[in-house]
């Protein structure tokens, strides 16, 4: 069974306009509200691919209720913990000539509620996969994912981490099965800006030598690079298509990778291929891609 954890879910308020100008009143030409947060996105795309995934995390207030409702409406298997105070955040996504986002801070999570999450995670069994994805509310310590991984050591649970900065850096020593930084986030870990495949591979291999098993580096429209635990480096260009909205493309890639890995009995090339197609299929849609959209790219690749 796959479980995803979203500490800081959101309502993604996606607005479209031809031109966006800072310091001015901008008028939306189209607006939609989606349930958001990386773990939620991963689980919904897994669901689209018929892979069962339970959604764990914290929701609060009226926005939290709407996140749960929208997740369920989209087939999500929700097991959220409800916080007694605050509201889940609203993340503004502006799609104009380019994409701009303002992500909220999210509510505080008191110790007693963290304990409830820990109790849920304790029930995972050997062979299960746990996806820790996205940021945590600003008031929580940056070792949150590390703490979870520490407690899960030796239990044969595959842990996937899609996060940035310290949250990601601190888990590497605990042998995550998969990490998925994008090119910028990978460079950020080493305080460098990466330009070439060789530079990306060097940094990816460094993360492997520090403990990560598979390092999947997403490169936007340039595709992805996988530094596999089998010692191979896999490189694939992205499928061609018209970019509509890239929000959730990276999460869809994680979902596709896990689905491809599971359905192929652990073939990394297959996992990368389905991951890439899921990422691109989402980038080519208004929101998260359906199975049909992902399979169409897969057949053509
Ligand atoms: N313009 C694009 N054209 C084709 N594929 C794309 C494009 N943008 C993203 N993708 C696909 O989605 C994958 C993930 O994208 P990206 O590298 O932007 O991840 P990310 O930065 O984690 O994304 P996000 O934070 O928006 O979810 C890429 O590897 C690629 O397969
Ligand atoms: O603030 P975080 O947790 O880093 O990212 C949150 C978020 O931007 O990630 C998803 C796309 O990957 C969106 O649904 C959501 O708004």
TrEMBL record:
Could you identify this protein by its name? Tagatose-6-phosphate kinase
PROSITE patterns according to UniProt: PFKB_KINASES_2
Carbohydrate kinase PfkB domain location is 9-284
Report the top EC class in one word.
Answer: transferase
Q: What does this protein do?
A: Catalyzes the ATP-dependent phosphorylation of fructose-l-phosphate to fructose-l,6-bisphosphate.
The answer to whether UniProt assigns keyword Cell inner membrane to this entry is: no
Q: Which CDD domains does this one have?
A: FruK_PfkB_like (cd01164)
Q: Which protein family is it in? A: Belongs to the carbohydrate kinase PfkB family. LacC subfamily.
């Amino acid at each position: 069974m796959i479980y995803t954890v979203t500490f800081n879910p959101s309502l993604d308020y996606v607005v479209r306009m031809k031109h966006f100008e800072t310091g001015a009143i901008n008028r939306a030409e189209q607006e939609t509200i989606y349930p958001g947060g990386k773990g939620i996105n991963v689980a919904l795309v897994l669901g689209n691919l018929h892979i069962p995934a339970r959604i764990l995390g914290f929701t609060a207030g009226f926005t939290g209720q709407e996140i749960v409702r929208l997740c369920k409406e989209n087939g999500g298997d929700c097991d959220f913990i409800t916080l007694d105070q605050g509201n889940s955040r609203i993340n503004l996504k502006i799609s104009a000539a380019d994409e701009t986002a303002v992500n909220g801070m999210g509510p505080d999570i008191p110790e007693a509620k963290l304990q409830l999450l820990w109790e849920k995670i304790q029930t995972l069994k050997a062979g299960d996969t746990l996806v820790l994805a996205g940021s945590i509310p600003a008031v929580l310590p940056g070792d949150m994912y590390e703490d979870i991984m520490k407690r899960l050591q030796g239990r044969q649970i595959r842990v996937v981490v899609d996060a940035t900065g310290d949250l990601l850096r601190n888990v590497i020593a605990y042998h995550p099965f998969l990490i998925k930084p994008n090119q910028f986030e990978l460079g950020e870990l080493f305080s460098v800006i990466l330009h070439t495949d060789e530079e990306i591979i060097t940094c990816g291999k460094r993360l492997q030598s520090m403990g990560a098993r598979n390092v999947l580096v997403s490169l936007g429209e340039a595709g992805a690079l996988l530094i596999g635990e089998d010692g191979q480096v896999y490189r694939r260009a992205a499928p061609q298509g018209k970019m509509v909205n890239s929000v959730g493309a990276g999460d869809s890639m994680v979902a596709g990778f896990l689905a491809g890995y599971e359905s192929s009995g652990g073939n990394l090339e297959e996992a990368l291929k389905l991951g890439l197609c899921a990422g691109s299929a989402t980038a080519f849609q208004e929101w998260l891609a359906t199975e049909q959209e992902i399979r169409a790219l897969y057949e053509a690749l």
